[in-house]
Amino acid sequence: MINMIDEIQLEDSIKKLAMYKNNIDLSFDEIKSDIEKLNSSFETENKNALLEFVDVLVQKKRIVTKMHNDNIYVLEKNLDNYRRTAKEVSHTFNNIETKGL
Amino acid sequence: MQVQVNHLKTYLDRISKSLDNYESDCQNFYNELNNASSYWEDEHAKKFFDSVLQEKIKIDTMQNEILSIKDVYKYMVESYEKIGNKLEFNLDLKEDTLYRIDTYIVKLENIISSYNSLNLSFCSKEKQTIENHKQKLIREVEYVQKVKENLKKTFGQIEEIEKNIQYKLSKLNLEIIKETDISGFIG
Asked: How far is B160 from chain A (nearest CA, A)?
């Protein structure tokens, strides 16, 4: 397994992911808001059952949002750790060069 | 029960458009995650991107679930639209309403019978006027019977729609999803 991170591309990906995640959240908020308005336009025998399904979907979306945030966090964290390690390695090499160790 | 079909149609159209956007945003998100797999390669990355593949399946399932629920709403709109644009009725009063109509019809029929039993031989002048009134009542009975039949038909349609919605909902089974433990993905 090659251990590598393309910092610039990964950073760019993280930015795009954050943008797409926001779009997902906005689209779902619109769906949720329109379903609420739709639900206020009728009272029928099965309304409560429908509302329960919608509630489950909203709960699931909360978990999906957490998953998406976690995905971005994992990439950010690994990029940060990679950069910190790279800096430490570079610092160590500099020390070796300057101190002749 | 009350249904405002035109409102339902408006919001359903909006939901369809937002759902298209949602699907395309999700697709973009996971395409980008797939791209990111080329920019980060190690043991943690392998575990992470394997998990993302599993996650994508759950997301696709959820999208299908949203579509299924939207289809139930769509069925409701299309079915109630056939009855009318705005429906409002207390269905608890269904039997009582039909009973009252029946009672009204019986009363009218009794009056018509009374007309039939009248001896009009001694009042030829009034006979035509009375006959006209009787015919008017017969037409009224026919009209009220039609109203009653239409009402019964509409009640039947509403029951059928709700029965079908209940059936569609009983076929829906929303999958439970759990958060992913990300601790193994960070190096």
From this structure: 11
State the best of A2, A46, A84 to mutate against chain B, taking most chain B CBs within 10 Å.
Answer: A46
Structure tokens at B55: 């996650």
Per-position pLDDT tens, chain B of length 187: 999 999 999 999 999 999 999 999 999 999 999 999 999 999 999 999 999 999 999 999 999 999 999 999 999 999 999 999 999 999 999 999 999 999 999 999 999 999 999 888 888 888 999 999 999 999 999 999 999 999 999 999 999 999 999 999 999 999 999 999 999 999 8
State how far residue B44 is from chain A, nearest Cα, in angstroms.
9
- CA–CA separation, B180 and A70 (whole Å): 8
Answer yes or no: are the C-beta atoms of B44 and B15 closer than 8 Å.
no
- B45 near A CB under 8 A: yes
B89 SS3 class: coil
B122/B113 Cα distance (integer angstroms) = 19
Contact A43 B2 (CB under 8 A): yes
Distance (Å) of CA B33 to CA A14, A78, A83, B114:
9, 14, 20, 86
